[in-house]
């Protein structure tokens, strides 16, 4: 592949992408409920003559064949967030959705997955129109439910790699609050594994004046949380990364009643599977032992979600970074430390033992980044990427990465 | 006073009392909203020709004068609880009321204040009809809002002892889940002081994967609760009594977000004012210092309620116990340790520096006490005193105690 | 018994007692090594013609028979302390002794047991010379090793009550830093039970920079101590008494090495056997569970000493207090709360199920008590009771108490 | 520089080095007391005709000049450890020394500094005899007192870089328990900064039964240690490294006395100066606040030692690693993570703002590494490097690194 072979979108195609993006932004859907989004994607693939199939409920897989050659998969996630948009954009979302428990909530593309979809459809259109520039097969994976760590698993469980051609690499990208026009990528660990648990500690209630008749679940919970600090502080190699956050703690209704139970939720971040294994074991050990210290029954531990490893194959990534540097310019490609945030992208390649590469593309213009006040980050109600050069950079990165494998 | 001079209620009066009790039980009202109860009391006092005045909103004070002699005050509290009655009685409450925030809730006489009102009105009727047996003045204090510690303060603030004759002693009694027909009383401390606080700890929120950008209020709260254990364990004379209960702890909405604040409520029980002073000071010291240990701002401490000392004057109580033993029988009068529960009764006498005596009368028959499962205690939705001998014992105790001072 | 029948010591007898006291004070011996003291006691009993036998090593039991009548036992403890006397008295101790491990240490009668011995020998001499005033049998129990909780057990194990006449009551007294001439006594619990343990926590050592390779016994110990605070704070009825003190903690030799073990000692005080049972169980539960929370082996718990209950039989004590008040004057007899300090006296009566009574007699003159600086208490190197009226009050209390049972 | 220009030691020179090494090993000296070692080094430098001067007490600086060219400094540390050697070698140490407090202790070259001295003297002899292969100036820094972090500071304070030619780079190496014949080196951080403190917490003593009269320093110490766990767990970016170890905790003499003070020592490891700054600040904040939570006075914090940053200049290190790979073979040069252990080497270059590079050379043969039981590491009484190929590899690495700068 050389620079000259990378096709550029026409003005018309760029305009089409912007329109598509604004439509997606205005019509976000909650995780695993991306019905209209899936239908839109299907219509677009039909228009390109790309064969496709549903996978994992609201997931869509397109297969763009172009003769002999390797198979490359590219993934875009499609879901929005239960968030009330506050960007003031004229294409801002007014959509609502229903949570699992039936509550109606506002929905927003607050994590920028709308850019992912618009970019991948546009890249597909560009490549479909430039078949002379490449050969092989491109598998387009439009994945639902990234936010809940449900989507990648659902597609794998629904036979993704039995039904689509098996790729030699899985690629993906994410818009982030860095400077639009730049690419950020780490070699090796890309993002953290994340494990979330709900822990219910069971005690025995009593009147506040009679602690001797109670097994106080709030005191127990407090001692568990205190004790959990030793896991990261004393049990993890200081050169490895781990976080144990207790994000919520709830117990008791009235100050003069010792309640019978309390509940907290944990979120664990690790980069290394061995560290993860050790940390999760230590959490269970401490939760169980602290209950025993209180003379309380074994607490109930419920797994809420598990975000898998997201590992950038060093060889594949190093090679890809060279392509990025050549095609986008040295100064626009930044090698970074792993992020402690999480993604279920990594599961797609890991499931079949093929390497994957995941990078970030910037979404904010210089003015926003230099402005007063905090920069609106992903999951903020104010998160509003600059349309350009964000989208075009996303398209170019995608095409460069695909052609690095499939280019003639 | 001798036994023979204590007047006994007629069968008709007893029947009247039962009717009154059932009516009160069926029509409970929330604290400081005892409007219908106050009107009923006023009608009853009118019927007896007892002068009366409103005091502290829904409080009613009756003054039954009978010639020269000492002044004795007797208090009955009048409020119900926000509780859905589940006794199955045919006179069970179906009433509702509104909490301060407007929420409509079921209301129940779950602490037996209905027995207190019925008993005191009956004792008054008995004494009003037996004027030859005594001389002096009886002040009948029907106090609202005991459950919220608001009522005694409200009556005192509204000039109770400026408007009513100043008594030489203040008497009161409470129905408890002991054997009906028995009296339980401690000499010295009767019940605990209780102080309730709401504490808000202020941190700084961040994503769960970035604790270094947060000041974690859940970790701070856990360390405060852990540290508070040292107050009772290490700072209070082991021969003195103190309880520090954290009844509620609430912080965080989602496992992957470190929240910006958390909130807990405390309930403190002490018997000795010096111990109380020390414990409350130690709590403030620890809450403040632990926030400093986290680098967090000073937490906000809000006082929710303060139940005053309830102290049984030893001389007055010892003398009264002798009367009780003589009139009710040795085996029916039990001297007990102080209760760690709380009451605002003690404030009435303390406000003017006169002694007070407060005792318990049993409310359960032997079968209930011996039955399977837990005995329904005060504040339980199943709390249903045996009408007799509960009420008659209450009347007799009240009359004996009053005549001990005013009897001829 | 009436006042007139209580014999008074002659001036000569008093002078003899002072001499004896000064000799004892100058020649203290360590616990269970009171050889010279035992021989001195034996010589004194021989001089009175009182039969005696050795019991429990350095214990001596004298039996003073005087015809028909009840049997009363009176105990005096005989041991000194490993303490360098700093009183400046001309009869101050310069004695030394050897601890179990062979170390030579200074020895002092720093807890006033010398007064106990001098007083009991003098009371015996007085009664031996006033046989007309009483009839029955007086068992004089000179007990070794009170300070280490070893002596009472040793005498019981050596057949004390099989070899001496079985008493109907066991009496004892202790000099304390209250006003000389006064008696202090509680009804019911007299002093606390005390349990001492040594706990060794086993971890795994490593370099300070590699906590992940260690099981840190100092972090484990700190969490145990933190967690132990909940026992008194949350598991004991606030109206009952309990103390859990960690008196020592030792672990580690160098700041840059995580040690393999740490050691701490515990001292527990309780008044109520049920509370003691619960507290000791809770300690074991927490120590064991916290080790499990660290993934450490079960800690080693070694019992260092056990001081038994010291309970003043209410009927016997109330009766005795009336005698004291009559004979010594109301104002010199003070009813007090139980002390949280400990004594092995209580084991003597408990072993055979007979009541016992134990009281304190003051040892300081008014000037000492009113002086600047802290009053020298028992176990202080400055503890120096005023010889009089301390000793004579002790003799009078002993004789009054004995004659209350044996007096004609 | 090319391979052919790197001079090789003769058999005779190697034999000489072994003899020197065995002599040094048999005669270790304590930190800052390396008198005989310094004299031996001076004699060796004299024999080579290398000018030299004493610096920082027992430090020796040699300056080997060879015409025009750059200046390179190479450092070897010279001190032994207070350790009883247990290697069984026929040249094992039987030396003793005196600690600061006068205690006589056994001394051992338990950290392999004897290899450093023997290797550097041999490399100097080799280069002094091969002047045609290089030009420039080699500064030989024989530094005392590495183990106590005193030596580098002492040499700098004594004018090291004013008296010796200023180098363009400072080099150093350390023997480690890896495979002899291999080199291990990190790019960027090489070893951790280390800060050691002694903290004395001041409370108030009392009898174990009277915690209310005490301010318990053991409970305070336990809560400080518990709270310190939050620093690494919650205040440090999970991708950065930090360790806070409490290596010792000592308080109390007897289980039934609450002591007046307790003492613990801390050891902190960090790689990043900003993280170090934050962690040390957090420790002071927590120590101070926890004392306030106990109502105790401000604890006393004493700095015991400070090991500086040891940073391998990335450009200089990357370049040097290429030389190592070429000269020693790819498979013998391993790029590693930073070590969390500490060294004062880094201060030498940092003091004058010149880059430094520090690497490890293996000291164990394959049999030792594969054997049963733990491999004897540095500071173990069993630490006994295989003489060869350890020493020859050290010489070759030193010469390669020097010639990379000074080679013709």
TrEMBL record, chains A, B, C, D:
UniProtKB keywords: Hydrolase, Manganese, Metal-binding
Protein name, UniProt field: Amidohydrolase
GO BP annotations, alphabetical order: diaminopimelate biosynthetic process
Coiled coil region boundaries: none
PANTHER family on file: METALLOPEPTIDASE, PUTATIVE (AFU_ORTHOLOGUE AFUA_6G09600)-RELATED (PTHR11014:SF63), PEPTIDASE M20 FAMILY MEMBER (PTHR11014)
Top-level taxonomy: Bacteria, Bacillati, Actinomycetota, Actinomycetes, Micrococcales
UniProt-listed NCBIfam families: amidohydrolases
GO molecular function: metal ion binding; N-acetyldiaminopimelate deacetylase activity
Organism of provenance: Kocuria flava
Domain Peptidase M20 dimerisation, first and last residues per copy: 196-292
Residues that, per the record, bind Mn(2+): 111, 113, 147, 174, 379
Superkingdom of origin organism: Bacteria
């Amino acid at each position: 592949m050389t620079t000259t072979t990378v096709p550029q979108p026409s003005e018309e195609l760029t305009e089409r992408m912007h329109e598509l993006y604004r439509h997606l932004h205005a019509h976000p859907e909650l995780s695993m409920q991306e019905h209209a989004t899936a239908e839109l994607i299907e219509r677009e693939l039909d228009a390109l003559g790309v064969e496709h199939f549903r996978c994992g409920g609201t997931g869509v897989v397109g297969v763009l064949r172009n003769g002999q050659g390797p198979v490359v998969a590219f993934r875009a996630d499609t879901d929005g967030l239960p968030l009330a948009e506050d960007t003031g954009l004229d294409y801002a979302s007014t959509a609502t959705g229903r949570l699992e428990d039936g509550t109606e909530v506002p929905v927003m593309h607050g994590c920028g997955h709308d850019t992912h979809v618009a970019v991948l459809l546009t890249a597909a259109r560009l490549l479909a129109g430039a078949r002379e520039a490449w050969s092989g097969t491109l598998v387009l994976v439009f994945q639902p439910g990234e936010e809940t760590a449900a989507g990648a698993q659902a597609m794998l469980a629904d036979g993704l790699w039995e039904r689509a051609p098996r790729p030699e690499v899985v690629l993906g990208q994410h818009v982030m609050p860095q400077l639009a026009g730049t690419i950020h990528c780490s070699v090796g660990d890309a993002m953290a594994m994340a494990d979330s648990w709900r822990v219910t500690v069971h005690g025995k209630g009593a009147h506040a004046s009679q602690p001797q008749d109670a097994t106080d679940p709030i005191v127990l919970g407090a001692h568990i949380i205190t004790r959990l600090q030793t896991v990261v502080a004393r049990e993890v190699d200081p050169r490895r990364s781990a976080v144990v956050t207790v994000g919520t703690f709830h117990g008791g209704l009235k100050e003069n009643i010792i309640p019978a139970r309390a509940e907290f939720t944990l979120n664990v971040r690790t980069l290394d599977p061995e560290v993860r294994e050790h940390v999760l074991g230590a959490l269970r050990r401490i939760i169980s032992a602290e209950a025993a210290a209180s003379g309380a029954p074994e607490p109930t531990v419920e797994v809420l979600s598990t975000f898998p490893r997201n590992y950038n194959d060093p060889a594949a990534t190093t090679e890809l970074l060279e392509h990025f540097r050549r095609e986008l310019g040295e100064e626009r490609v930044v090698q970074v430390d792993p992020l402690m945030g999480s993604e279920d992208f990594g599961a797609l390649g890991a499931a079949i033992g093929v390497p994957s590469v995941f990078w970030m593309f910037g979404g904010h213009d210089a003015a926003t980044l230099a402005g007063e006040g905090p920069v609106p980050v992903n999951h903020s109600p104010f998160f509003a990427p600059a349309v350009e050069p964000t989208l075009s950079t996303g398209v170019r990165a995608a095409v460069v990465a695909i052609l690095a494998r499939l280019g003639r």
